[in-house]
Amino acid sequence: MGRRRRTASFSESTHSEFSTEDVASLQEELRRCQSLNEHLSEQLSACQGMAIRMQGYLFKYRDYIVQLFSSPWAERYFTLCGSTLKQFITDKTPQPRATIDLVGTTVQWEGLKQGRFWTFMVLDSANCCLIRLSSENRAVAESWIDAIKAAAGVQKRVSRASSLPQLGEDMHVSSPTVPGHRLGRYGSLGSLHEMERSPKHRRRNEGSDATSDLTSPSLSGPESGSEETEQDCQQDNAKKPSPPLCGSTPLHKENKASMLASEQLPLHPQPGLVNLGAVVLVATNFRLILENIFKYGLLFNPLRWIQELMLGSFTALILCWPALAACSLASLYIEKWGAAKVLEEVKHRRGLRKKDAFVKKTNSAKGKRQPGSDKMACSQDSSSLAQVHMLVTAVHVVSCIVCLVVPMAIIFHTDQGGLLPKFFLTSATLAVMMKLVSFAHCNQDLRMARCREEVRPGERGSANPVEGADQPLQYPENLTVSNILYYMCAPTLTYQVTFPRTGRVRVKWLLRRVLELIVAVSFFTAVVDQYINPSIANSMRPRRDLQWLPLLERVLKLSVPVVYAWLCMFYVVFHLWLNILAEALRFGDREFYKDWWNATNLGDYWRQWNLPVHNWLLRTIYAPVRSCGATRLSATFVVFFVSAVAHELMVIVPLKMTRAFPHLFVGIMMQMPLIILTQWMQSKWGERWGNITFWVSFCIVGQPICLLNYYYDFIRLNGAIASTIG
Which region ranges are annotated with the description Disordered (predicted)? Predict the structure, then answer.
């Protein structure tokens, strides 16, 4: 009201000096200034209140990733709150991984990179790259650039707006603003003074009449105004010819860093150097292939592998498979017996509760004293249920021991069959034993929950059932032959009532994976026959005589084919074979591994490279030990001990090397101090050096030395040292 009175008095006092048209023009300018002030206030409040300007997924450039096998662009979730850019792993991550203050920063557009990523960089005041982002959609990238530019210059624009002259001072408004119109290309006053300085804009204002001044906005959007001015300026600069190059033309005009300087490397990717490394790697390996063929000839013989696997007399070994099936059925039927006893006791307990409730109601009506026979009956029921649980657990333990001992005893004492079938049978025995342990552990928890009349997660009626399951089940509905048969064939070691399932079997996809499996297995056998076997045989004399320099040379020579064979083995087992099983059985959860190759310490590697075993150890070993009151270190020690015993059994049983030194057991038990060491190195020197330490310690040195020691012990126990080949 006060502002309106002052405006009216101002109009009356100046009526004698100005015409009616001048007063109307001033009032119109006043309204537009008020609208502009409100818009600036909204921007300032949004900035101070950290309102989210923009959010979504972008690709972040990681300069420490080698671009040969993986993309350096990682998809991350970003939010722009006021003038702060926050980075999250996903949109469900509660805490930001990194934050960047955008005040005073600039954005540099890089265009299309790798034919896919529309890329831009955020630079600080010293033109150092703070972050490099991209999007597969150009419009999305440009909208982020606009938002970041608006957030970066908000303080400058607010201070510039506050310095505008107030009403009553000398003020010139060259082109009024339409109220409610979007201000500038970036939603701010950034283009106002640029347009006032633009010659084209001045010519346009001079050539317009009063009506156009009142209707055409000077603070326009991308379709007019500042964008046209910027495009015209760029065209004018492009058309302007460069000055002639004479003898005195200065060529050093500004401070520039070298291309390979540390502050410039993140700004400029080096695909040429990566391509050079790939070419050198291919050329070096091709030379080694030719050298190996010239020295040893063609040793690869796939028929030998097939004959060793398929032919021969396997009478004793074949008996192991029915033994494993019998142990599985024994575990199923003992669990069904325990479930029947539990349901009988639960039904009896419900009847007692109903009877007790009826007696209480009757006695309370007659005023009689409550009997205590129900408490005695409940205690008897609890005692009988405890006996049932103990008996079922004991039978499960016996079944698991028989499942482990009987096949391994047959494998160890029989001379029939080759090493390859024995290795496969030993691995299958350990897998079935682990499955039966998980089956007993899971059903024991479900059985005890049914005694308390509770529903466990994953069962029908629970708050969080398994997504994608064909039919929700509840204990003991899962105790069927078809259920345990599916579990025994499924690519998992941890039992649950139902599993997530896919809709159908993709036959073409399955055939492609089978073809890849054949090719990968052929490559694995070729590497073993052509490279690993000769290198190991030639290493026996330096190993026996402890000639350290020749032995070191043999270890390094053996490390490359061992890495190839080990990576191929991982790809065959965890990607191809488990995915083939999952597709054939419509098994939904196919996260069998994570990106362990990016592990920055040995702890990350052991948690990510073999998720079926990791999940089994976590739920079946680690969690029960922790629930007994053990510390994290003690529980971790137990986990590594169980893992070391299982790995050692996979070697000594097929090779019959009980008198040899347990190299694999000691190596796995040494992983605990090595995990602490690699974590310290990661914290001291960074993630890149942690990843390099992991590769060197585990693959380049650890596996070749372990392989050499086992081969040497095997030859020594058999009474001869292999002579040098070639």
Answer: 165-252
> Residue 513 in contact with residue 580, Cβ under 8 Å?
yes
Q: Which CATH number fits domain 2-164+175-211: 2.40.30.110, 3.40.190.170, 2.30.29.30, 2.20.25.10?
A: 2.30.29.30
From CA 668, how far away is CA 646, in angstroms rounded?
11
Check residue 58 and give its pLDDT.
94
Winning range, highest mean pLDDT, from 218-222, 238-242, 637-641: 637-641
- What span, in angstroms and rounded, lies between the C-alpha atoms of 118 and 133? 8
Q: Which of 200-204, 351-355, 389-393 has the highest mean pLDDT?
A: 389-393
Indicate the SS3 state at residue 510.
helix
Whole-angstrom distance, CA of residue 654 vs CA of residue 414? 10
- Considering 39, 252, 647, 663, which one is annotated as catalytic? 647
- Written as one string, the DSSP assignment of 231-277 is HHHHHHHHHSPPPP--TT-----S----TTSTTTTTTS--HHHHHHH
647 is catalytic: yes
Q: What are the domain boundaries of the chain? A: 2-164+175-211, 312-489, 502-590, 593-726
Whole-angstrom distance, CA of residue 84 vs CA of residue 101:
5
DSSP 476: T
What letter represents residue 137's amino acid? N
What values do phi and psi take at 79, rounded to 5? -130, 140
Cα–Cα distance list, 449 to 166, 339, 443, 475, 588 (Å): 76, 11, 10, 9, 27
Tell me the whole-structure pTM to 2 decimals. 0.64
DSSP single-letter state for residue 453: T
Cα diameter, the chain: 125
- Residue 392 half-sphere exposure toward CB, CA atoms < 13 A: 28
Q: Given strand 84-88, what is the order of strands in its sheet? A: 98-101, 84-88, 73-81, 52-61, 129-135, 117-123, 106-113
CA atoms of 723 and 55, how far apart (whole Å): 67
Three-state SS letters, 379-434: HHHHHHHHHHHHHHHHHHHHHHHHHHHHHHHHHHHCCCCCHHHHHHHHHHHHHHHH
CA angle 26, 44, 58 (to 5 degrees): 125
- Compute the mean pLDDT over every residue in the chain, rounded to the nearest whole number: 77
> 70: which 2 tokens?
């993986």
476 cis-preceded (ω within 30 degrees of 0)? yes
Could you give phi then psi for residue 379, rounded to 5 degrees? -65, -35
Is residue 222 within 8 Å of 228, Cβ to Cβ? no
The token pair that represents 27 in the structure block: 């009032």
Residue positions counted in the chain = 726
276, burial (CB in 10 Å: exposed 0-12, middle 13-18, buried 19+):
exposed
Task: Report how far residue 324's alpha carbon sits from residue 327's, in angstroms, rounded to the nearest whole number.
Answer: 5
Helices (H) and strands (E) in the chain, counts: 28, 7
Pairwise CA distance, residues 670 & 237, whole Å? 67
Distances (CA, A) of 248 to 241, 244, 245, 252, 696: 18, 11, 8, 11, 56
Alpha carbons 264 and 259: distance in angstroms, whole number: 6
Confidence band, pLDDT 50/70/90 cuts, at residue 197 = very low
Report pLDDT for 681.
82
Alpha-carbon distances, residue 64 vs 11, 12, 72, 599, 688 (angstroms): 68, 72, 8, 13, 7
